[in-house]
Design a protein that fits this description.
The complex is a heterodimer. By secondary structure, chain A is mainly beta. Chain A has no helices and 11 strands. In chain A, strands 2, 4, 5, 6, 9, 10 and 11 form a 7-stranded mixed beta sheet that branches. Chain A has a 4-stranded antiparallel beta sheet with strand order 1-3-8-7, with no helix packed on it. The termini of chain A are far apart. Chain B is an all-beta fold. Chain B has no helices and 11 strands. In chain B, the strands form 2 sheets. In chain B, strands 2, 4, 5, 6, 9, 10 and 11 form a 7-stranded mixed beta sheet that branches. Chain B has a 4-stranded antiparallel beta sheet with strand order 1-3-8-7, with no helix packed on it. Chain B is globular. The chains are: A mainly beta, B mainly beta. At the A-B interface, strand 4, strand 5 and strand 10 of A face strand 5 and strand 10 of B.
């Protein structure tokens, strides 16, 4: 199975900060990379699909980039509602795999 | 409103069985891949199984293969996960999710149903 590794595992930041989360695949996955946000007690929410396409209704402060094995999720200016856990997911292989998650906390 | 609603979770003894259901509304269920994803409280997301629009292609994670069976009834807009030979490590919140965007992004999720395997 393709392994997905996110960094960092946790991150402390302040409202207004620009933050970047990285996801690395154990082999090339082209652009078959999605990003999700999850808040406690809630289902995940799709933010970015196909590495860089913004899901409908998601604010433009979220952006994704990358291809092959290295990908990034960037939040341009943090709002209070952005503090959550973020997951990457590969769908290149039919046996989908998620990264371990990055918990974004308020500094 | 586009919605997925899971049911069927509960407490079951090791070795027991459960069938989870996921009812879709607000979109053309029969057109899309559907998946099950689980999450141990406080831990990460783990993909379990997926099924294509007409049920002809089914995929499982190693942890589910041979014990879990995914299926769908497009006439009832319902996805199922039959779970047999349950183990303590299957304890988790189980989510169903649809894939209606390219690259397999899971764009609609249910609220989750909790499965607890314990004696």
């Amino acid at each position: 199975d393709i392994q997905m590794t996110q960094s960092p595992s946790s991150l402390s930041a302040s409202v207004g900060d620009r933050v970047t989360i990285t996801c690395r695949a154990s082999q090339s996955i082209s652009s078959y990379l999605n990003w999700y946000q999850q808040k406690p007690g809630k289902a995940p929410k799709l933010l970015i699909y196909a590495a860089s396409s913004l899901q409908s209704g998601v604010p433009s402060r979220f952006s994704g980039s990358g291809s092959g094995t290295d990908f990034t999720l960037t939040i341009s200016s943090l709002l209070p509602e952005d503090f959550a856990t973020y997951y990457c997911q590969q769908t290149y292989s039919t046996r989908y795999t998620f990264g371990q998650g990055t918990k974004l906390e308020i500094k | 409103e586009v919605q997925l609603v899971e049911s069927g979770g509960g407490l079951v003894q090791p070795g027991g069985s459960l069938r989870l259901s996921c009812v879709a509304s607000g979109f053309t269920f029969s057109s899309y891949w559907m998946h099950w994803v689980r999450q141990v409280p406080g831990k990460g997301l783990v993909w379990v199984s997926g099924i294509n629009s007409d049920g002809s292609t089914i995929i499982y994670a190693d942890s589910a293969k041979g014990r879990f069976t995914i299926s769908r009834d497009n006439a009832k807009n319902t996805l199922y996960l039959q779970m047999n030979s349950l183990r303590a490590e299957d304890t988790a919140v189980y989510y169903c999710a649809s894939v209606r965007v390219v690259a397999g992004g899971m764009d609609v999720w249910g609220q989750g149903t909790t499965v607890t395997v314990s004696s």
